[in-house]
Each structure stands twice: as C-alpha cells, then as structure tokens.
Design a protein that fits this description.
4 domains; hypothetical protein PF0899 fold; Isoleucyl-tRNA Synthetase, Domain 1; mainly alpha; 10% strand; 3-stranded mixed sheet; two-stranded parallel sheet; 51% helix
Length: 365
C-alpha cells in the first residue's frame, strides 16, 4: 500500500508508477490510500505564524496517546482533517462513554464464571437476544469498515452502540434484573451472559484504536480458559448468525417506538411535578384494536421496558389515536430494596419495608 497526501497523485504515486511499469511491467503497489491535510477547527491550514498549530506531543501530554489515536481514527481522512481543542474535548467525552460502559459491564460480571454460568441462546430472554442481534449488526458493520479502511465508522458506531443501545436502553432496563433478582437466577445469569458476550466483542473490535483501554478491559473479563493473555493476540469476532433474528428485531424495534411514546409522557409528567422519576409512575396505555394484542403479548415486560412500577393496558376509544399514554402516581409504598412502588409493601411481618417480590428473593437466598 502507498499511503500519502492527496498532492501525491501527481507526485510520488505517479512517478513511482511510471518507473515500475517501465522497468518491471507492473504497478509498484497493490493499493493506494490518500488522505487530506490537517487543518484547524475552522478549516484553515496550520501555520506557526498564525499560531494555530497543535502538535501531536501536546495532545499526548494533555490527553494521552489513546486520544490521539482516537482522533486519527474518528476523522474521515478522505477530506481535510480538522483538529482543535473543541474536537479533542468531544473525543475525550466519547472515550469516557465507551470506557465507562465497559467498566459497568465488568462491574456486573464480578460473580460470573462463563465456564459454569453461560446461558445457551434459546434460554435467553427476548431482550437479551435482541441486543445480541444488534451486536452482530455492529460487528458486521465494523468488520466491513476495517476492510475498507473506513476507520471513522469505528468510533462513531461503537460510541453510538454504547450510548444509545446500551446505556440509554438495554443496561438501563437491565438494572432491575441484575440488582434485585436472586444472584443465581436464570434471568440474572441470562443478563450476565449477554453482557459478557457484548464485552468480549467490543473489546476486540476497538483494540486496534483504543489499544490501552482494550488491553486493560481484557485483563478483567472473566475467562473461559482458552483466551490469550493479551487482547492483541486475539482475532476480530465473527458475526454469529445464530443471534441474527430479523423477525425478533422488528418486534423489538416496534416496542422501542412505543417506549419512546411512553418516555415522552413520563417526561411531561415530571415537568408537571406529578412524579419525580419514572419508577413513581403507573402508566395507562390505550391502544387500537390492531396494536392492543401485540402489547398484550408483552404485558409482563412493559413495566420493565418503561422502568415504571405499574402498567395497565386498555382498548382505545373508537375515535381515539392508535396509541396514547396516560401517567398516574403509582399506588402503594416504595420498596426499599427494589425501589418500585407496590401495594404489597408491608404485607410481610419479617420484612415490612419490602415488596412481595423481594421477600420471595430473600426467602430463596
């Protein structure tokens, strides 16, 4: 491969091509990759006289080599590449999001032994299979990006997966299961299995760019016994077709659209001071005849998906919209263990401050 700036199309690339074809009857390179020039945040050429030069040594001294590599990978080099303090600050924030997501996943795997606790795919909950479907889509996209040298896709796709798919959805919904279910329950082990598989793949996918972070994370991931000591001795993960399920994904993407409507209604209730946070709410969903059966099939999951204490499904009036969400204060008292509001709090003589669900978990400990 020849790697140089775009000015070399009429320079080094061209002259070496002429010389090689004339002397060896073949091109001197198999691939040519050209990049733009580094400019400041406003697109101006960097110049000492202007005072807008940011040296790599300065970036490494302030933010570390990891951020410098991340900047190189995050920019689309096919055009001129911008560099400024503001750009670096945004990258530092994105790096922290990725790192903190990995740390959260590790924190919930402290008692997980993949040799003993790994749950087979068919035993996972639908939401676990859905996030692993999303993981396969991410893996396929990043493998293609590496093959095509489209490195800017890497940072943006991983950051989006951590911020949107994981932090804003899956890990947020998962908290009730990993914090309040029995430690060895099938549901909690299923959640840990999904988190383990996600962390394994993410760490290997980001290793060429976030080399230090990936190596550090890899050292704490629970071992099955056959993994190399260093992440840099592993290979990229392959797309696991067993987890690719378009029908399942279509159902859950429909649920996510409904969840968005619910979250908007909860936010409005917060602004009206009806509730302080979502767990203080009881949600009433009115749905059209076409939508109601679908929601009823997920009735037991909707409270968890919306992170509310209670939920009721009702048919919409004949002249009503397809979907409407009404927020009320949840009945009952707050369980000091799971923080949800339930009318069963206080019904146990031995545990008067927790709900029946938590009493059952403690009784099975």
């Amino acid at each position: 491969m020849y790697l140089e700036g775009s000015d070399q199309h009429r320079g080094w690339f061209h002259s070496s091509l002429l010389a090689a074809v004339g002397t060896r009857d073949r091109a001197p390179y198999k691939e040519v990759l050209t990049h733009g020039f580094v400019v400041d945040g406003e697109g101006r050429k960097m110049s000492k006289s202007v005072g807008n030069v940011i040296a790599p040594q300065e970036v490494m001294a302030t933010h570390g080599a990891e951020i410098l590599r991340l900047w190189v990978a995050a920019e689309d080099y096919r055009d001129d590449v911008r560099l400024s303090s503001e750009i670096l600050t945004r990258l530092v924030e994105g790096y922290r999001r990725i790192r903190n997501t990995c740390r959260y996943l590790l924190g919930n795997l402290y008692d997980f032994d993949p040799k003993a606790h790994l749950v087979p795919r068919k035993a996972l909950l639908e939401i676990d299979r859905f996030i692993l479907h999303r993981l396969q889509k991410l893996t396929g996209r990043l493998l293609r990006a590496y093959d095509r040298y489209e490195f800017h896709i890497l940072f943006h796709a991983i950051h989006n997966f951590c911020a949107v798919d994981l932090s804003a959805f899956y890990l947020d919904v998962l908290k009730d299961r990993v914090y309040t279910f029995h430690a060895a329950s099938p549901e909690r082990r299923a959640a840990q299995t999904a988190m383990y598989l996600i962390l394994q793949s993410l760490t290997r996918l980001m290793a060429p760019v976030l080399s230090f972070a990936a190596e550090e994370v890899w050292g704490y991931i629970p071992r099955r016994g056959d993994e190399p000591e260093s992440v840099h001795l592993t290979e990229f993960p392959k797309v696991d077709e067993a987890y690719v399920d378009e029908v399942l994904a279509e159902r859950w993407e429909r649920l996510l659209r409904i969840r968005d409507e619910g979250l908007r209604a909860l936010e409005e209730a917060r602004k009206r001071k009806l509730i302080g946070n979502a767990v203080e709410a009881k949600v009433e969903i009115q749905a059209s005849p076409a939508l109601l059966p679908f929601l009823q099939s997920y009735a037991k999951d909707l409270c968890t998906i919306l992170i509310v204490s209670a939920l009721e499904l009702k048919p919409a009036p004949p002249d009503g919209p397809e979907l409407s969400v009404v927020v009320h204060r949840a009945p009952g008292q707050k369980c000091e263990r799971c923080w949800t509001y339930r009318e069963t709090v206080g019904s146990s003589r031995d545990h008067p401050t927790i709900c029946d669900r938590c009493v059952a978990v403690l009784g099975s400990s």
